[in-house]
Design goal:
Length: 997
């Protein structure tokens, strides 16, 4: 497959070269059109004048004048200025075309932006809820595999962390904080084209946890970011309450592309990416490392090096020095992304078909690869009388991912710098006389995940009478995955003479089938200046999940590991079919007067099969209101205020993100038999009395824009209180179960401030748009009755965030023993759990992003900075004792010795001395294991050039960089994701093109 990548990249660059050579074909042959563009009598500077269907364009000068040589005699001119709607003018026989914009048109284009709110659409400036929007233009500037990477740093109140540098990994997304005490209970609801998408983890934790942190893969990995038109994120009660019990953690609405009006259009895009690991850890060299090791043995009173101290007892070359970062994860990864779409439309019919293929390799020495093929079909029809419409969207995806079963990044950190070479003189894996566990052998054990996904959506609307329409949304979601973790006997030292009987394969198959039917009535009515927008509807969703796990070992041959029937030992664990049913009735009633005063009422009654008979149904709702005060007479003629609105909302949403059937007394079969009879055993302890987790949301916001919308400002304050927490109550081991599902009377509060600023500093030949978002979240556990007597006493603290750590207080180095010391809070003469009294929050304090878009003629520049202020778990928490047979960061050179009594780290020890080991283990659980993890990152920069070539409408070339630069003081590999031993996000460079025919 390496040849494929070479050919692809060579082909891409060949196409680019050919296109550059074709630039002489840009000659213009038409007539010249001149004119002036004004607002009333004032010349407008920087208005783009463009010939439709081409990239032939110019800008008005300081006097509002322009001159353009046409490429076609039958041309149409497009006049674009951000403060006004687009104006189109047929040239016909004219050589002079003057355009005059009026005061009434000013800003109307921005005000009429329509946002998808799920069951309804709303003009951006008339919404009462908090809805953030990311468009296709912002997404396509970042060639990523998962669209969540493209919106990092772009949306206020939305924190996104990429958990792995490997393609196919997981993401942690939090919309206005962490509401639930359960990690899995904080997932937002994903809706793709009106269909509830798979949420939560899409992999088997037991198979993938060695390579993917937490064993997680995000469901949006199935989607192709290039096929997405927009993403709306619903945050407050007014926006999310219509989703009832599923909206507690926010809603992510994804709308894929559809056919657009105009002539037949074919678009082809191709890009090629190379990447490498960002690593901030600087490790000891051989000289420093061996000095540390010798000192450790001396400190432990060991004069003769033991036989397993290979690094200093002569078994390994003490003059050798290997950069394990370069050897194991220092290779260059690559990605290729090719996309072809066809768009056609008429007045009644729109059609779009798109096919994409994506491939990605890794930074590991062996050829691991992800392949993903996607397809999108969109069909829309509207009757000539506009009273009937029907649309269909189908998203298809197939992916094949192969990764090592264990991440080599842990070996990068731990291997001694004088460890033996990976290969011997014969080119085979080196085991150095049975003294070296070769990390490359672990690459022979691999993890595969093959997945298919289909998402079908049908939306039809019938106007029954004037103002009243019947709308029906039907969705079908299907996914299946086959995961394997293959561990052949060849991962072991061949001198052990292990055969295929030591090989084993773990396999897990899962199928998910879901459908939803959502009919609703929409009624819109205007009476003079009173406007009503109402809807009522029903939701029915059913999802079925079926899983099968197989463990196979003792194979006849390693060549038969893909044939599980060749294993003589097999254990099958069939997951019972799980049915989830969800039913709802909902309504939303909106009223506005003079398009100035707005009020919306939303209600929903949900029923979920995850609760017992007496608790199946829950009621949820919200009220939202807004006042556009800039339309008042005393401000209507303001020369400086373009728009002003105050809005607020309050409501209750819910959460049913728990396992199925936990209210039932369920049993499962086991492979073990007694007297040839298969028995049953309890699957879990059941509780029929737990009920809905509920989230009360309150928000007040102010939206402003100034000077013809050239400056925008938004300020929002929110408070969410989540109660009746659904958790698994830990149980003692004597019960035979680890936990039981129940409600805790605990309350978690999330409140914060979100600030958004936007500006258009330049609007002439150079157009510059800038936007800044800042979020200041605060999380705390408000109440928890009998916390001290519960099993959560050492986990949470009332009045503190739920992300706190209870730690030892480090007091420094004992000048006599040279070991770490800690404060004995209860003064009982020993350090134990009761002395963990220091509270450290490892959550985010504030975060945001700064985006800039600059356009000069056909050249575009997009820059995005992401910044996070946080405390994080650092390297210390997951480190080995300095002096053991593992390398260490250079910071650990500052270790205690008689010559360095003020050191930050205890004396070196091999770990064989109990007191030294205990002291260091306590140090790993002390306040020193949490430190500043803040960072500023150049998340994305994109430079593009767009021009016309013969026989095409346009060509865009772009160069993109992702994660190019990071400023941080974090002690660890990367500040974004701090779990040690896993590959952090990569630094990437992309070259690509987009052709429009």
């Amino acid at each position: 497959m390496k040849k494929f990548y070479f050919k692809l990249s060579r082909c891409t660059f060949g196409v680019l070269l050919g296109l550059f050579c074709a630039t002489p074909l840009l000659a213009q042959t038409g007539k010249t059109v001149t004119g002036t563009v004004k607002e009333l009598q004032v010349p407008l500077v920087g208005v783009m004048v463009k010939e439709e269907g081409t990239n032939n364009s110019t800008f008005t000068d300081d006097n509002g004048n322009y001159s353009l040589i046409l490429e076609h005699d039958d041309a149409k001119l497009i006049f674009e200025q951000l403060d006004f709607p687009i104006r189109e003018e047929e040239v016909l026989n004219r050589s002079v075309i003057n355009v005059r914009f009026t005061k009434e048109e000013e800003g109307i284009q921005l005000k009429d932006v329509v946002i998808n709110a799920g069951y309804y659409a709303v003009k951006d400036k008339e919404r009462t809820g908090s809805i953030a929007r990311v468009t296709a233009k912002e997404i396509e500037n970042q060639p990523v595999n998962n669209v969540l990477s493209a919106i990092q740093g772009r949306v206020a109140g939305v924190s996104i962390v990429q958990n792995s540098g490997n393609a196919g990994g997981g993401y942690d997304i939090q919309i206005r904080g962490r509401n639930s005490l359960r990690r899995e209970g904080n997932e937002p609801l994903y809706i793709v084209d009106g269909v509830p998408f798979g949420s939560g983890n899409t992999t088997s934790v037991g198979l993938s946890s060695g390579i993917l942190p937490y064993g997680e893969s995000n469901p949006l990995n199935f989607l192709n970011p290039k096929e997405i038109e927009s993403i709306e994120i619903l945050k407050d009660a007014d926006a999310t309450a219509i989703y009832g019990s599923r909206g507690a953690n926010g809603v992510v609405l994804i709308t894929t592309k559809k056919g657009k009006s105009g002539k037949l259009n074919i678009t082809y895009s191709s890009d090629y990416t190379v990447g490498k690991v960002m690593n901030r850890l600087r490790l000891m060299n051989t000289s420093d490392y061996l000095a540390m090791r010798r000192t450790a043995f001396e400190n432990d009173g060991i004069k003769t090096y033991p036989t397993n101290a290979y690094d200093i007892n002569g078994a390994w070359d003490e003059n050798s020095s290997t950069n394990w970062f370069n050897e194991l994860v220092g290779h260059i990864s690559s990605k290729s992304n090719n996309q072809l779409s066809i768009n056609a439309a008429s007045d009644q019919f729109q059609f779009l078909m798109s096919i994409g293929h994506f491939e990605a390799t890794t930074v590991y020495p062996e050829p691991f690869r992800l392949k993903k093929t996607t397809a999108l079909i969109s069909l829309n029809y509207t009757a000539p009388n506009q009273r009937f419409s029907i649309g269909y969207k189908g998203n298809l995806s197939r992916s094949v991912n192969k990764l090592p079963s264990t991440d080599l990044f842990s070996s990068v950190i731990s291997l001694a710098p004088n460890a033996p070479n990976l290969y011997n003189e014969q080119g085979e894996l080196n085991w150095q006389n049975n003294t070296f566990v070769n990390p490359l052998a672990s690459l022979r054990s691999y993890y595969t995940s093959n997945g298919d996904m289909m998402n079908h959506a049908i939306l039809n609307s019938i106007q029954l009478i004037k103002g009243l329409s019947l709308v029906n949304n039907i969705g079908i979601y299907y996914s299946q995955s086959i995961e394997n973790r293959v561990s052949p006997s060849t991962i072991y030292n061949p001198n052990y003479n292990y055969g295929s009987e030591r090989s084993n394969v773990l396999r897990y198959d899962q199928k998910v089938m879901s459908y939803n039917i959502e009919p609703r009535l929409e009624y819109n009515k205007s009476i003079n200046q009173h406007h009503f927008t109402n809807l009522v509807g029903l939701t029915f969703q059913h999802r079925q999940t079926n899983g099968l796990g197989i463990s196979a070992s003792n194979f006849l041959s390693n060549s038969l590991l893909n044939d599980l029937s060749s294993a003589s030992v097999k254990t099958i664990s069939a997951q019972p079919i799980i049915d989830y049913t969800y039913q709802s009735v909902y309504g939303r009633f909106g009223y506005n007067y003079q398009s100035k005063y707005f009020i919306n009422l939303t209600g929903r009654r949900d029923g979920s099969s995850r609760f017992g008979q007496n608790f199946k149904y829950g009621n949820f709702g919200a009220i939202g209101a807004a006042w556009i005060f800039s339309k008042e007479n005393f401000l209507n003629e303001s020369s400086w205020l373009s728009f002003g609105k105050i809005r607020g909302s309050y409501g209750i949403t819910g959460n049913d993100l728990i396992g199925d059937y936990q209210y039932l007394d369920t049993y499962i079969t086991k492979a073990r038999t007694y007297d040839q009879v298969t028995g049953l055993e309890p699957n879990s302890l059941y509780n029929p009395n737990f009920s809905w987790e509920k989230n009360k949301k309150l928000e007040f916001a102010l939206d402003l824009s100034f000077f013809r919308d050239r400056i925008g400002f938004s300020l929002a304050w929110y408070r969410n209180v989540s109660g009746n927490q659904l958790v698994g109550i830990p149980l003692p081991g004597t019960t035979g179960f680890s936990s039981i599902q129940s409600n805790l009377p605990a309350k978690v509060e999330n409140k914060g401030i979100e600030i958004e600023l936007s500006a258009k500093p330049l609007q002439n030949a150079i157009q510059w748009k800038s936007s800044l978002n800042l979020s200041f979240p605060q999380n705390k556990l408000v109440s928890f009755p009998d916390l001290e007597g519960s099993t959560y006493a050492n986990t949470y603290v009332i009045g503190q965030p739920i992300t706190v750590k209870k730690l030892y207080e480090w007091k420094g180095i004992d000048p006599i023993t040279g070991l770490h010391t800690f404060k004995d809070f209860n003064q009982d003469g020993k350090i134990n759990t009761e002395d963990k009294q220091v509270i450290k929050n490892v959550g985010v304090k504030w975060f945001g992003g700064w985006s800039n878009q600059v356009q000069y003629k056909n050249v575009g520049l997009d820059v995005l900075f992401q910044f996070v202020k946080q405390n994080s778990i650092n390297y210390i928490a997951q480190s080995f004792i300095p002096g053991s047979l593992t390398n260490q960061p250079i910071e650990f050179l500052d270790a205690y010795s008689p010559n360095n009594p003020s050191a930050n780290y205890q004396r070196y020890s091999t770990g064989s001395q109990t007191l030294a080991s205990q002291a260091y283990n306590n140090f790993k659980q002390s306040d020193q294991s949490v430190s500043d993890g803040s960072y500023i990152r150049l998340k994305n920069i994109s430079i593009s050039y767009q021009f016309k070539i013969a026989n095409t409408s346009s060509l865009k070339l772009f160069l993109n960089g992702q994660n190019l630069w990071t400023l941080t003081n974090y002690f660890g590999a990367d500040p974004e994701f701090v779990l040690s031993g896993y590959l952090p996000p990569l630094k990437e460079y992309t070259l690509g093109l987009q052709l429009n025919f």
